[in-house]
Design goal:
Chain lengths: 293, 138
């Protein structure tokens, strides 16, 4: 059996760990609130944007903009994968990466090549060890502060790959934040923009008729690249929210495990102490008996 | 108030401005235009340009870095990826941005994409300075 002192050291160690995990839990909770506020502030923009876009694009001809052009044949696709920069958030990053691997396999199964764009250090680190996957670009150290500029930067990677004709389709994989306990890696098609998707936005809002200047088509041409930014931004925000939620529950679990461990160790410590006292008593009694002779 | 129009400037980061005003003058890709309450539903692309709002005797300015505007009878909504109120503009930062953009412009004359980007940055910086000066003069 471990000595009393060993057990005490262990208990002190676990207590310190618990302090850290508890602090991390609280930090994540604060960050989660921050990201949620950001999402809240973004909502009016996104809603208005969808409304206007929807009402403009009714019966639109895909020929007016390269971002709407459906390819005849898809040989190569790009995937923009969002992960976190940091770990200690349970299976969050692995879930996203696995979903990415699944996507790559599927596409390759269909005879298409895949090139990868990564946002987040964890994703990059994983794929660095997998040279068979073609990683074009990786942005790291950016998930801490998600803002619209970042979205524009990410969107530009996708737009460049698409417009240069390097790839025929662009997808993005983000973590869909359904609830604190349901964070679902989700693949969505970014480019080309599906006219049905845009029209779907209109159905939701019941688009309004406008007088436009310049022509509706001209405005739409202006709007579509911005639409890509909007979608990327909401994907990034959801991923950031999910990351903090995942870390919160991971740290919550860790704190609880620490508590259990401390309880068990304390029990062990008390038992060991009792045993030591008993042995000492036996010694004393034994010694006294011997003296009596 | 039947003869006032509600102006809202919305960016991805926040609702920048929400105010009832008499007249809004904005810069579309085709030039400046003014809007009063009761305008027909109207949609336009905004250029990198200034937004002027008049309410009584007070005039206020904002810099809009491109976007679009939706106008319904009582409401003027500006959707911009970034926008700043005149009094919130950091003139020093704008001046530095302008210098940077000018340097880049001189350097990247050969590459088309970078050139376009630097040119856009220069435009934005100059606009910010112009708008900021307007409020100072007033």
């Amino acid at each position: 059996m471990a000595s009393l002192r060993d057990i005490q050291t262990k208990i002190a160690g676990v207590k310190k760990t618990r302090q850290i995990t508890r602090a991390m839990n609280m930090v994540s909770a604060a960050k989660l609130r921050g990201v949620q506020e950001k999402t809240e502030r973004f909502r009016p923009y996104a809603a208005k944007f969808a409304e206007v876009l929807g009402s403009l694009s009714q019966g639109v001809d895909p020929g007016i903009h390269p971002l709407l052009a459906q390819p005849d044949k898809v040989e190569k696709v790009a995937l923009i994968l969002f992960t976190a920069d940091r770990g200690l958030c349970g299976s969050f990053n692995m879930n996203l990466i696995n979903a990415g691997l699944r996507f790559i396999k599927e596409q390759q199964g269909a005879g298409k090549q895949v090139q990868l764009y990564i946002v987040g250090r964890k994703g990059r680190d994983f794929f660095k060890r997998r040279p068979e996957v073609d990683v074009k670009e990786a942005l790291t150290g950016v998930m801490n502060v998600v803002d619209f500029d970042l979205a524009v930067q990410v969107a530009r990677m996708g737009l460049n790959a698409f417009l240069s004709g390097e790839v025929q389709e662009v997808y993005y994989l983000y973590s869909n934040f359904r609830s604190m306990a349901r964070l679902i890696p989700t693949v969505a098609k970014l480019l080309p923009i599906a006219p049905e998707a845009v029209a779907g936005e209109a159905a939701k809002t019941g688009g309004q008729e406008y007088m436009t200047e310049p022509s509706a088509e001209q405005i739409l041409v202006d709007l579509l690249p911005r639409y890509v930014n909007v979608r990327i931004y909401s994907g990034l925000l959801e991923t950031a929210t999910s990351e903090q939620a995942a870390r919160m529950s991971a740290m919550d679990n860790a704190t609880r495990n620490c508590k259990d461990m401390i309880e068990n160790l304390t029990l062990l410590y008390n038992k060991a102490r009792q045993a030591a006292i008993t042995t000492e008593l036996m010694d004393i009694v034994g010694g006294a008996e011997a003296l009596k002779g | 108030m039947a003869n006032k129009i509600l102006l809202e400037v919305v960016t991805p980061d926040k609702l920048l401005l929400s105010k009832e005003v008499d007249v809004v003058v904005a810069t579309s890709v085709e030039g400046e235009f003014a809007v009063l309450a009761g305008h027909v539903p109207f949609l336009t692309s905004l250029a990198v340009g200034e937004l002027k709002l008049k309410d009584g005797n007070a005039t206020d300015y904002a810099a809009i870095n491109g976007g679009f505007a939706e106008i319904t009878g009582q409401k003027f909504t500006v959707l911009a990826e970034s926008a700043e109120l005149a009094r919130e503009i950091d003139v020093d930062r704008a001046r530095k941005a302008r210098e940077r953009a000018e340097q880049r412009l001189a350097k990247s004359a050969s590459e088309q994409i970078n050139y376009a980007r630097a040119e856009a940055a220069l435009k934005r910086a100059m606009l910010r300075m112009k708008v900021a000066e307007r409020t100072r003069a007033a």
